From TrEMBL:
Pfam families linked to this entry: FTHFS, THF_DHG_CYH_C
Domain Tetrahydrofolate dehydrogenase/cyclohydrolase NAD(P)-binding: 34-163
Tagged with keyword Cytoplasm: no
Keyword ATP-binding: yes
Keywords for the protein's UniProt record, in alphabetical order: ATP-binding, Hydrolase, Ligase, Multifunctional enzyme, NADP, Nucleotide-binding, One-carbon metabolism, Oxidoreductase
Catalytic activity: (6S)-5,6,7,8-tetrahydrofolate + formate + ATP = (6R)-10-formyltetrahydrofolate + ADP + phosphate; (6R)-5,10-methenyltetrahydrofolate + H2O = (6R)-10-formyltetrahydrofolate + H(+)
Protein name: C-1-tetrahydrofolate synthase, cytoplasmic
Listed CDD domains: FTHFS, NAD_bind_m-THF_DH_Cyclohyd
Subunit structure: Homodimer.
Pathway assignment: One-carbon metabolism; tetrahydrofolate interconversion
Originating species: Equus asinus asinus
HAMAP family the record matches: FTHFS
One GO biological process term: tetrahydrofolate interconversion
Length: 777
């Protein structure tokens, strides 16, 4: 039977998987958060490699107990009757009888069978492997006839059910009023702007009031080189602060990034943590929050509009009558500074020569050098390359452009790295958007737009206060990309939190991707600008990540894990430890003690977990402990919290990796050799040219923000473990002058994600009666 040309997953033509809008009903219990898999008993009838075996592994991975049967299993009816979840893929028409099914069970019938039926035009009808008419009277949910649910679609359904349990957990806890939490942590009412009952913005005046208060302990959470599934840095961050706060009664704050709506509606889902270690309400966290990303989108696109409008008017109007050459423009607030920059020592516009008017009126932007793109907080692959200016009113002035996702905007990086409103205004001024035809940098200040940008961003600079499931405070602020930007939450949030917790308290923040990317940028960029000095690195590792680094089979998001990842394999774990050892060395290179958090999954064995802990401590970790915070919340991270407390008291000597005065090429080489283990770097012609241009323009002293794959220490995502002997190719270098870094491109970096075959938005809906968001995870 043909696959659907639209989805490629279901074996029934034209049937999209599990989208309420596409004819396949969601589970009836989704209004209350979906089916809980963990702790349930599942029965899989059928041992095929296509459905049976993968479903067995997937259910087991998601913490169910599983029995696998076949058509000749003794007392099959009794086995089936034990299943809270029943998956049937036996290939025999109506083999499973309705009376066998446990009342209320979830029944997923994967069968497509043809039986004679004289009432049908072709003399036959399609039935599943389950006797549908009988079974539907007993089942809590059953897939409709015809069956034929494809194996990937079944896997996706089970993943959706499993992920929705996090939403269930989130809703099971009523958050304390955010105003009450603000008072508890020492904020004054005039420092808090409430956004409803569950979130608030905190004024930067708090820093002035607390400027004499000593800072607390500063902890950064990072990770091993991850699988495509991620290894749980966010849940570890939240679990750790819950353990420190709710269980060890320490003053504590989590500081995390705000997620983009692109991945939330795309393939990744939200980023609130998970299980019993998450930020609540997860819907508020993962969607609009307080509008910071929308403000960034508006500000970014105002710059883009200003660039194209400026070029258009310069091309279609004369210097003296054009909008850029009017007397009103000369009398702008910025005019004296602009005249000084242009070297024109006159205050009377009537005395300007034609050449001086030309210099004043024209930026003469070279369209081939424009680096500023429009942005949108939605995954949309068809905006990766567009043509603008096609309307007749633009008089034929078209050019090729693109959209990036909003969190890739330099304004997001500016927000994350700024220290005050004044500093943000200065950084927004300095953002370079292009070069003139003479090779001079063109900034937002040159466009006259930086003041308006500051107005748009005046509320976004205030950190957002939320809370964890266990009532500990969380700042959610900024969310820069972790590849072309530095992948860390804001400096102002960290600074306020460090003052609020006091000298004995803890602030725990998270760095994006693995330690070779997010942690290195946290130290060399964020800490360099903030002046803050971290006390502890928490390095998250998992058995599955070590197995993948040790040469395990490919891991693909949305598909069941291969058997190697759910069966004990100490040899594979030990082989993959080389990557964790390197990441421990990377952290210690900065002079900070490292605690390894071994994030445990149900299929991990004690021998595997103990092996990782033993090896980590033997190779320089201050401590290494097993964590079960996803399932147990703060209680599951108590050992980690105690290890962090001890490590924070240990001697440390924080140091940065390189001196800013070094040439651009040398700074890149230091990162490549010391952090990635490269033998050397190779600057390709475009990168070499940009290094020279930026140095000439005065940007050579900026720190380096490497843009490379997070799936390997090298530039090749297929190279696992600790690759050696490779030369790191730098194909281009770009500048985020306002944010304050240069970012070399290692390979191709996509700044606009696309939607997958089955996006998360299929499952998201609103209950019109309760106004409750369903399907978000």
């Amino acid at each position: 039977m043909a696959y659907s040309p639209l989805c490629g997953l279901c074996a029934v033509p034209g049937l999209l998987p599990f989208g309420r809008k596409r004819g396949f009903p969601l589970l009836p219990s989704t209004s209350s958060g979906g089916v809980q898999i963990a702790g349930r008993h599942a029965v899989v009838v059928g041992r095929s490699k296509i459905v049976g075996a993968p479903m067995h592994d997937l259910l087991l991975w998601n913490h169910a107990t599983v029995t696998t049967c076949h058509s000749k299993t003794a007392k099959l009816d009794e086995e089936v009757n034990k299943g809270d979840i029943l998956v049937v893929a036996a290939g025999q028409p109506e083999m499973v009888k309705g009376e066998w099914i446990k009342p209320g069970a979830v029944v997923i019938d994967c069968g497509i069978n043809y039986i004679p039926d004289d009432t049908k035009p072709n003399g036959r009808k399609v039935v599943g492997d389950v006797a549908y008419s009988e079974a539907k009277e007993r089942a809590g949910f059953i897939t409709p006839v015809p069956g034929g649910v494809g194996p990937m679609t079944v896997a996706m359904l089970m993943q959706v059910c499993m992920n929705k349990s996090s939403c269930n957990i989130s809703r099971s806890c009523k958050p304390k009023p955010i105003g009450n939490l603000a008072r508890e942590i020492g904020l004054l009412s005039e420092e808090v702007e409430l956004y409803g009952e569950t979130k608030a913005k905190i004024l930067l005046s708090t820093l002035e009031r607390l400027k004499h208060q000593p800072d607390g302990k500063y902890v950064v959470v990072t990770g091993i080189t991850p699988t495509p599934l991620g290894e749980g840095k966010s849940t570890t961050t939240i679990g750790l602060v819950q353990a420190l706060g709710a269980h060890l009664h320490q003053n504590v704050f989590a500081c995390v990034r705000q997620p983009s709506q692109g991945p939330t509606f795309g393939i990744k889902g939200g980023a609130a943590g998970g299980g019993y270690s998450q930020v609540i309400p997860m819907e508020e966290f993962n969607l609009h929050l307080t509008g910071d990303i929308h403000a960034i989108t508006a500000a970014n696109n105002l710059v883009a509009a200003a660039i194209d409008a400026r070029m258009f008017h310069e091309l279609t109007q004369t210097d003296k009558v054009g909008c850029c050459g009017t007397m009103g423009t000369f009398e702008r607030v910025e005019a004296p500074e602009l005249m000084l920059k242009l070297g024109i020592e006159k205050t009377d516009p009537t005395t300007l020569t034609d050449e001086e008017i030309n210099r004043f009126a024209r930026l003469d932007i070279d369209p081939e050098t424009i680096t500023w793109q429009r942005v949108l907080d939605t995954n949309d692959r068809f905006l990766r390359k567009i043509t603008i200016g096609q309307a007749s009113t633009e008089k034929g002035h078209t050019r090729t452009a693109q959209f990036d996702i909003s969190v890739a905007s330099e304004i997001m990086a500016v927000l994350a790295l700024t220290s005050s409103l004044e500093d943000m205004r200065d950084r927004l001024n300095k953002m370079v958007v292009a070069s003139s035809k003479k090779g001079e940098p063109i900034t937002t200040e040159d466009l006259g737009v930086s003041g308006a940008l500051t107005v748009l961003m005046k509320d976004a600079i205030k950190p957002n206060l939320m809370q964890t499931l266990e009532g500990t405070p969380v700042f959610v602020h900024a969310g820069p990309f972790a590849n072309i930007a530095h992948g860390n939450s804001s400096i102002v949030a960290d600074r306020i939190a460090l003052k609020l917790v006091g000298p004995e308290g803890f602030v725990v923040t998270e760095a994006g991707f693995g330690a070779d990317i997010g942690m290195e940028k946290f130290f060399n960029i964020k800490c360099r600008y903030s002046g803050l000095r971290p006390h502890v690195v928490v390095l998250v590792a998992t058995v599955r990540a070590l197995k993948m680094q040790g040469g395990g089979p490919t891991v693909t998001a949305g598909l069941p894990l291969p058997k190697a990842y759910i069966e004990e394999n100490l040899e594979l774990v030990e082989k993959g430890f080389s990557n964790l050892r390197k990441q421990i060395e990377n952290a210690r290179m900065f002079g900070v003690p490292v605690v390894v958090a071994v994030n445990a999954f149900r299929t991990d064995t004690e021998a595997e977990l103990d092996l990782i802990s033993h090896l980590a401590k033997a190779h320089g970790a201050f401590d290494a402990v097993k964590c079960t915070h996803w399932a147990e919340g703060g209680r599951g991270a108590l050992a980690l919290a105690q290890a962090v407390q001890r490590a924070a008291e240990a001697p440390s000597s924080f140091q940065l990796l390189y001196d800013l005065k070094l040439p651009v090429e040398d700074k890149i080489r230091i990162i490549a050799q010391k952090i990635y283990g490269a033998e050397d770097i190779e600057l390709l012609p475009e990168a070499q040219h940009k290094a020279e241009v930026y140095t000439k323009q005065g940007f050579g002293d900026l720190p380096i923000c490497m843009a490379k794959t997070h799936l390997s220490l090298s530039h090749n995502p297929e190279q696992k473990g600790v690759p050696t002997g490779f030369v790191l190719p730098i194909r281009d270098i770009r500048a985020s002058v306002g944010a304050g870094f240069l970012y070399p491109l290692v390979g191709t970096m996509s700044t606009m994600p696309g939607l997958p075959t089955r996006p998360c938005f299929y499952d998201i809906d609103l209950d019109p009666e309760t106004e409750q968001v369903n399907g978000l995870f």
